[in-house]
Amino acid sequence: MSTASLSAASVPSSAPYAPTPRALAGKVAFVTGGARGIGAAIVRRLARDGAAVAFTYSSSEAPAKALAAAIESEGGRALALHADSADAAALTQAVDQAARTLGRLDILVNSAGVAVAGEIDSFALADFDHTLNVNVRAVFVATQAAVRHMGQDGAYGRVITIGSTNSDRVPWAGFSVYGMSKAAIVGLTKGLARDLGPRGITVNNVQPGPVNTDMNPADGPMASNMHSLMALSRHAHPDEIAGMVAYLAGPESGMVTGASLLIDGGFAA
C-alpha cells in the first residue's frame, strides 16, 4: 500500500485514542531536574501539550522560576519546587506537594542526573555514591512516591526515565560508573513495568546520546570524538528528546512499556 493511499478512512474506527494538538490537556506531570537542559525542554513540551507541570530544581533557582513564569504567562500552569534528587526525603515531599497543589499526578519524568568521569583507581567513593543516589536511587524514590498518586482504578499513569546510550556502549575510559548507573535503569524499568502494569501504568526509559546542553555542548572539546562514533554526526537538540518523552507521556503510547528507547543518532548502532 502506498503512503498516498493511507487516509482517515483507513484508520479503524475502534482506535482507542484521538490524537489532538494538546494531547495532555487535563493531565498533571512531575519532572525532576526540570530547570535546565533536557529537563527544561521536557517541561516546556509537556506544558505546550496541555499538562500542568511541577518540576524540581537543586541549584538553578533563577532559571527554574523564569521557566515557571514563562509557562504561566502563556496560559499554562507550572510549579517550581526546590528539591535535591540526592535527598530522598526532599524528593518525596516535592512529589507529594505537587500532587496536593495540582490535585493529582498522571505523569512522572525522572530527568535529574549527574555524570562524573574518572579512572577507576582514583574514582572517589563519594562520587560513586552520589552518582547512584541521583541516577538510580532517586528514580526509585520518585517513582515510589508518584505511583501512590496515579493509576488508581485504571486511571492514567506514565513513568518515564531519562537514561543514556551509555547503558549500551561506553567507548571511552573513565565512564564506567556513569554507564553502570544508566544500565541499572534498564533493569529497573523492566521490573517496574511488570510491577505497575496491572494498574495501567506504563514505565519506559529514554536513552539519549550527545545532546546540546551546557553540560555537553555541541562545540565542546569531546564533540568531534562523539560525532565520529555516530551515524548522524551531530548533537541532538533538547527538544528532540522532549518529543520522544511527549510521545511516551501521551495517549498514543498506551501499549509501550518496559522499553529502553535509543535516541542517539546511531551512537550505539
Strand content: 5-15%
Structural class: alpha/beta
Could you report the average pLDDT, rounded to the nearest whole number? Answer: 92
Order of helices and strands: EHEHEHEHEHEHHE
Radius of gyration: 19 Å
Residue share in helices?
25-40%
Low-confidence stretches: 1-19
> Outline, from the CA principal axes?
globular
In what order do the strands lie side by side in the largest sheet? 3-2-1-4-5-6-7
Q: What is the name of the CATH class?
A: Alpha Beta
- Secondary structure tally, helices: 7
Q: Largest sheet at a glance?
A: 7 strands, parallel
Q: CATH homologous superfamily?
A: NAD(P)-binding Rossmann-like Domain
The CATH architecture can be given as 3-Layer(aba) Sandwich
